Fold these 2 entries.
Entry 1:
Amino acid sequence: MDGNHGAERYETVIIGGGQTGLATGYHLARLGRSFVILEADRRVGDVWRRRWDSLHLFTPARHDGLPGWGFPAKGWSFPSRDDMADYLEAYAARFDLPVRTGMPVDGVTGDGHGGYVVTANGHRFEADNVVVATGPYQVPTIPAFASRLDPGIVQLHSSEYRGPSQLRDGGVLVVGAGNSGAEIAIESAGQHQVWLSGREVGAIPFRMGGLASRLLLERLVLRGVFHRLLTVRTPMGRKMRARMGSRGTPLIRIRPEDIPAAGVERVARVTGVKDGLPVLEDGRVLEVANVVWSTGFHHDFSWIDVPGLGDGEPSHRRGVVDGQPGLYLVGLHFLYAMSSAMIQGAGRDAEFIARHIAARVPSARPAAAEPVGA
């Protein structure tokens, strides 16, 4: 792109065409607002297509739909990554959402008049509101000492992991014992000796086998605890929010006993490197050929150049950024509730933001973009 495009004006620019960006667009469309969704990838859903081959969602399909359209699968099945990707693409088409693909956003700045300028792939967009829907999976977190591991050891972050074929012959250390780490460890154990390092993150207290346990999962955990009890409005929710950064989400689809049953050995936290090999908190040195870092992600909002935004997550109330009228966040871990970064929480958070936007300017602008300076 040569960067000579005329600017386009919308009431709202949504950055990110994942589940929360699409849900926000759905609610804005129902309110008759003018908006565009900018998606970095060439296809809606590609962020899911890049995840590991055997990935299935941790929650059943009946809780994996976005507002207006339930997930088209058996209610107690667990959709694959491709199922989810295709659903998101079909969702955008079903509701004719104005998604512009191939639009990685370069930056967001103020326009000097209370609005914002968004630049993406040589294009310029002007808006009264910007919704950052890039989600929680932004920059992979890998400890600094990883660079001191023997260069012959294969190192992958979970975001790069596709399957056991990427691994060398020899032992595999998976670092991070949350849902992703546990599933990668179990899958790798079919062909390798595997160690899983990390603190216990807990698990739902039953298996999802019979009808009774499914109803407990649905009514007690997903709709109850995750969605209504553990929110920023409750003392228990605020305490859990503070802990989640270090402990991760409880295991949902697998059980802690499934890990040793698959032949995976649980070990202490990795704290450093000795002679090119990982060292555990208890002093044990593991002779491994592979390390998979399932150690999560951290935010990078450095491309948003507005006053008051520093490192880390901006201060906000349910995604309404403090001190920056018209700037919003959706899809982050515990934005409002424990369910906020799950598919089932996307619709509620998106609706709150859409209604907040509508309340700022009661009369909507025309749905079509207005060329500016073309």
Entry 2:
Amino acid sequence: MQIKVGFLVSYDYEYLKTSLPLVYADAGLIALAIDKNRRTWNGETFAIKEDFFAWVKEHDVQKKIRIYEDDFFVPSLSAIENDTRERNMLAAFMGEGGWHIQVDSDEYFLDFPAFVKYLQTQDHYLTDPAKNRVDICTFLVVLYKKTAQGYLYIKGQYELCFTATNFPDYKKARTGINKRKFVPYILLHQTWARSEEEIRMKFRNWGHNIDFDTSRYFKMWQQADETNYHTFQHLHPLHPPQWKALGWMEAKNMEEVINGFKKTSILKVPKWVLIKHWLKEMKRRLTA
């Protein structure tokens, strides 16, 4: 059984210095997909400093990292279509067989070794994946903003994350049409806890950049801090009620955030969350 982990590397490549070490020891193969022309899904250019590649080489002590450079931008496609296309190309690059895991640079596994042990109990799916296709879904806790003394996060919400599959065939970003299983493992997602410049860059190049009023959302995001966060409600950019409220954690950096979350009850995905998604899955299969 091989664990293959693929990262999409773009303008936020620096976050890989946090996310990659969390999976390195337990991965058999790690592939970094980087646009060879340094273009985003929206066609905007970016740069990667050479010292980043030096960092990768230095940390790849077991020689398991492969750089995959290709042209991932097609002008006639939307950002989300280019997103999906790159993920399928990355899956093809990693090759058939084993468990395919795709993680974005800003997603941090809190217990990757435990997740790998779980996948080992599911290895029967690898015998004939074409006939027994499955997606293993985990959950994301979203980091919303870095404040002067800590980090705001989305409270009480566990976002579904299509994480591993025995048969990569992505239809929209990481979402596929395979059978789905839901497991209570958590990744922190540094989706909005970035500098203002990075947030503007994300708005221009995100796969959902045309699906909401980015200017209005940015102004709301700017106003939230550790003194008023409890007054903010309905924060999801696409489906506002989905993110009901904010929480706050004192921390100086991402390492402290990760260690802090490991000590909280937030990591225990409630049973009702798993049941809710299981019921949705049963309905999806019946209507497919």
